Amino acid sequence: MTASSRPWVSVVIPIKDELENLTPLTEQLFKVLSSQEESRTARFEIWYIDDGSTDGSGAMLDRLAEEHREVRVLHFDRNYGKTAALDAGFRHTTGELVVELDGDLQNDPADILKLIPLSAQYDLVCGWRQDRHDGLLRKLSSRIAFLVRNVVTRDGVHDTGCPLKVFRRAVVERLQLFEGMHRFFPTLALMHGFTVTEAPVRHYPRVHGRSKYGLWNRIFVSLFDLVAVRWMMRRVLRYRITGRVMRDE
How do 97-100 and 71-75 pair as beta strands? Predict the structure, then answer.
């Protein structure tokens, strides 16, 4: 792929039963991305990963892809979870910048423009929902998970659960994902020597659909995954090559 044909940014959005959010989300993304100077000389792409939706989201995504050449769709044969959807999306993107975003419209697509400038200095830029509009149980479970996770990982990131992130291409190519690892993107990036920062983003109440995460998969499953992350942090390979000597053939 030549530099001129490569998208300047790829957006990856896992979808599980978000039918009523798909059209407004796509419209907002087009408005945001089309307004950028980069879109005058390079294209952008939006990858929707249909993670086994049963509410008609799949058909709607196909319709959006027919209407917009920038929209690409991957359909799973059943529900595999958010990590699998992100991994599939990452592997199909070609942009130098890769944006992670949820399909529930609780994050404002316009906030992508707050994070992208920071990607000139950092490999991974994470959104930080300082004023969250979630229910009490969800806030409490996230707070407990954060306190325990930060003791183990010490990555210093306040809101790893925020689904709005901007990756440089090298990060998504380096990360090898396993189930549940999307909760630890900052830790995994730091573990491999990448730079990480965060910036405040807006957060809205969910209007359509319902959350796919409850107390069990927000606290207990993530804490179980934390054991695996701790092992990875201790065992990750770290080396630098200072030179290379070889004879030409």
Answer: unpaired
Token output for 234: 């201790």
As a whole number, the mean pLDDT across the chain is 86
Band of the pLDDT at 171, cuts 50, 70, 90? very high
Q: Give the Cα-Cα-Cα angle 105, 70, 168 (nearest 5 degrees).
A: 75
pLDDT of 241 higher than 60: yes
Listed in sequence order, the residues at least 6 apart from 62 whose beta carbon sits closer than 8 Å to its beta carbon are: 73
Cα–Cα dist 51/76, whole Å: 5
pLDDT digits (tens, 9 = 90+) for 209-229: 676 554 555 556 666 677 666
Q: Which of 203, 216, 162 is nearest to 186 (CA)?
A: 162
Distances (CA, A) of 113 to 29, 49, 207, 215: 11, 22, 23, 32
